[in-house]
């Protein structure tokens, strides 16, 4: 959506009017909480920039670059954003520099919804859309609607399925009169990064167990792997690379951490049992439950430890160009998986920066990331060496080759809720909400088998004074086998955190570092989406099969503030507190304009404003909520009792964009001048039986719609 005035300023003015009781009569703000099959805004213009299967160049050939499926993260690079990089030294950041009228965008493509074809069943929903497209192009010659598919046709389909995920890199331009954005098909450098071996990525800081092969069976160079997959959200580095997060990779070739049920119960016999060191099975699974591993072509099955990383994409380089570090005499170009941060179901990454959105000078590089699973954790990477002004891009990138990884332990968190502080005087009362006045106290724990400084969180219950390294190596600690070395530790971070008793969180999704927070102090904002299943450990951090299911259906947003907020690399502790809590109306008929839930992607305006999108599909909430983009009011002038305030709005979320039914509102991203907000409409109508969305197309027979799913959109 686009405006001739910065969008945050318009929204903030309307919030201020609402708070003071001065909103013009008849103005719908916040937007009504209703489900529709269209995009609604508070008056902005909007247009679809690209949708699934749209060509991104002038070619309409089946193998030409096309917009992928189910888009998530967006990053915009305004033209000439790095024009002030003298002699190659890193300077301006793409966050707030460059053109706001033309530029390049990166968009993640996470997965395809609904059922894929098998030898005994036809595809449905989005998978049928792809099958029909391939049939129309002559790539598939079978009857794609039939319930019997030859394995050869299934294999062909899998190969093209791989091409729909990953990420797209293309140029867009804005019409100066209509303000509409469109793809520039003539641009040179358009590329698709996907799950085939056409995309090659080097893993740095973690050693994969076996040499990987390309799609023809030829060995790849050491620690180079084929493709990226499960790309959910991500981050934009201050030096102009994209970090894309590989999330649910267990669905492609199999899970590496097989010892945990979906309810966080430990499963024996999976190589994690006590009494011995953990043993990992990286062999790809080939059952029909694996989207890619089920291919009959053994050359195209991948080891499980090839995926599950934060991936740094060098977008101007060819997808086949894997990273060669300047530390090893390389050119510092190409793509890498950041093995120094280990493997989890990564949601995103965010960088600690100064108020100018540049790296903090003379300090180590700091990256935060979140593991989006029930009981997942938040991590912080601190490079071993500092960034110093004058460094080239290759030198800055080399800083990520080595460093320390920390996990956030939210000490005192109530294990029954995951969002309140434990109240020992009333242990079943639901806990105490952490506030900025009375926050929770957290600490960063170094994840290393040689850590002799930090006590394991569950040491008071299992062995007072036991250090993290000793607990990890112990073959019986907390009923889990020993983790003998750093490489094994990085492969199974979720298990390692359970072993240590690190506080379990309610699906931490997006994290965003806010260097210009309204409080005046830099903070990290965290979207906790929800958690309605048990925790693995009890309040003491000890594994317990009787832990109750959590009841957080609606999620919340927290803030973390480092003890050294302007130098987060120096911080070993932090405070945490809640800034917003989601809720669901009792029924569709209830007039609940501020009802929202399941926060997912966050966005920070250049002046520190906090925005978020939601992922609470109406099917999970009885159609009582619309997924949308929200502005979170953190202006203390709007608190109750403040002068002139009629309707206190501090801590309220204002819906100013609503997405079509049964879709996520993902990837919000502003242009540098804040006059355009891009966001993705992911999987509208994915429940294609109960919510047969046809947006943005109009069709008379939605039941057989080809289901072209829209994605990147901008507003007024």
From TrEMBL:
<dbReference type="InterPro" id="IPR008557">
    <property type="entry name" value="PhoX"/>
</dbReference>
<protein>
    <submittedName>
        <fullName>DUF839 domain-containing protein</fullName>
    </submittedName>
</protein>
<dbReference type="Pfam" id="PF05787">
    <property type="entry name" value="PhoX"/>
</dbReference>
């Amino acid at each position: 959506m686009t405006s001739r005035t910065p969008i945050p300023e318009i929204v903030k003015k309307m919030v201020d009017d609402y708070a003071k009781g001065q909103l013009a009569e008849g103005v719908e703000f916040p937007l009504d909480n209703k489900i529709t099959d269209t995009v609604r805004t508070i008056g902005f213009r909007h247009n679809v920039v690209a949708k699934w299967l749209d060509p991104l160049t002038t070619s309409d050939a089946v193998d030409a670059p096309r917009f992928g499926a189910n888009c998530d993260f967006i990053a915009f690079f305004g033209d000439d954003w790095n024009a002030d990089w003298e002699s190659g030294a890193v300077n301006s950041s793409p966050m707030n520099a460059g053109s706001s009228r033309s530029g390049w965008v990166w968009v993640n493509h996470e997965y395809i919804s609904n059922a894929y074809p098998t030898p005994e069943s036809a595809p449905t929903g989005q998978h049928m859309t792809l099958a029909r497209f391939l049939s129309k192009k002559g790539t598939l010659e079978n009857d794609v609607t039939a319930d019997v598919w030859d394995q050869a046709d299934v294999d062909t389909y899998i190969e093209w399925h791989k091409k729909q995920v990953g990420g797209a890199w293309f140029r867009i331009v804005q019409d100066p009169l209509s303000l509409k954005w469109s793809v520039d098909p003539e641009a040179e450098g358009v590329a698709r990064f996907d799950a085939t071996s056409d995309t090659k990525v080097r893993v740095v800081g973690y050693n994969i167990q076996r040499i990987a092969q390309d799609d023809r069976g030829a060995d790849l160079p050491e620690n180079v792997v084929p493709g990226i997959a499960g790309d959910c959200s991500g981050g934009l580095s201050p030096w102009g690379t994209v970090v894309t997060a590989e999330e649910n990779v267990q669905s492609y070739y199999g899970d590496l951490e097989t010892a945990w049920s979906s309810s966080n119960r430990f499963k024996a016999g999976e190589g994690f049992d006590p009494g011995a060191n953990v043993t990992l099975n990286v062999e790809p699974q080939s059952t029909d439950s694996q989207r890619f591993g089920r291919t009959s072509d053994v050359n195209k099955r991948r080891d499980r430890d090839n995926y599950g990383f934060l991936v740094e994409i060098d977008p101007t380089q060819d997808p086949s160009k894997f990273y060669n570090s300047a530390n090893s005499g390389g050119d510092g170009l190409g793509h890498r998986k950041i093995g120094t941060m280990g493997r989890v179901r990564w949601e995103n990454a965010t960088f600690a920066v100064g108020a100018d959105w540049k790296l903090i000078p003379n300090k180590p590089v700091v990256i935060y990331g979140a593991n989006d699973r029930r009981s997942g954790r938040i991590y912080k990477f601190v490079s071993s060496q500092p960034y110093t002004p004058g460094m080239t891009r290759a030198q800055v990138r080399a800083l990520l080759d080595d460093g320390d990884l920390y996990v956030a332990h939210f000490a005192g968190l109530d294990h029954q809720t995951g969002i309140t502080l434990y109240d020992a005087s009333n242990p079943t009362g639901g806990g105490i909400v952490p506030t900025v006045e009375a926050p929770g106290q957290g600490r960063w724990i170094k994840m290393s088998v040689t850590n002799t400084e930090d006590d394991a969180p569950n040491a008071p219950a299992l062995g007072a004074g036991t250090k993290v390294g000793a607990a990890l190596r112990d073959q019986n600690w907390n009923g889990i086998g020993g983790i003998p070395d750093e490489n094994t530790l990085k492969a199974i971070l979720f298990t390692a955190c359970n072993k240590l008793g690190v506080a379990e969180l309610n699906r931490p999704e997006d994290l965003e570092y806010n260097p210009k927070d309204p409080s005046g102090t830099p903070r990290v904002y965290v979207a906790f989406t929800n958690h309605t299943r048990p925790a693995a450990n009890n309040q003491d951090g000890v594994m317990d099969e009787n832990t109750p299911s959590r009841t957080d259906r609606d999620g919340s947003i927290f803030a973390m503030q480092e003890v050294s907020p302007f130098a987060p690399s120096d911080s070993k502790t932090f405070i945490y507190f809640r800034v917003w809590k989601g809720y669901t109306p009792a029924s569709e008929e209830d007039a609940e304009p501020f009802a929202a839930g399941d926060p997912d992607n966050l966005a920070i305006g250049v002046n520190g404003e906090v925005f978020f999108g939601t992922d609470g599909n109406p099917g999970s909430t009885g159609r009582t909520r619309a997924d949308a983009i929200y502005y979170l009011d953190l202006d203390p002038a709007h608190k109750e009792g403040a002068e002139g305030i009629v309707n206190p709005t501090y801590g309220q979320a204002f819906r100013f964009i609503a997405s079509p039914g049964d879709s996520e509102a993902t990837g919000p991203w502003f242009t540098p001048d804040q006059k355009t907000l891009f966001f993705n409409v992911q999987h509208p109508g994915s429940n294609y039986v109960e919510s047969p969305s046809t947006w943005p197309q109009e069709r008379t027979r939605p039941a057989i719609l080809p289901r072209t799913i829209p994605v990147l959109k901008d507003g007024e």
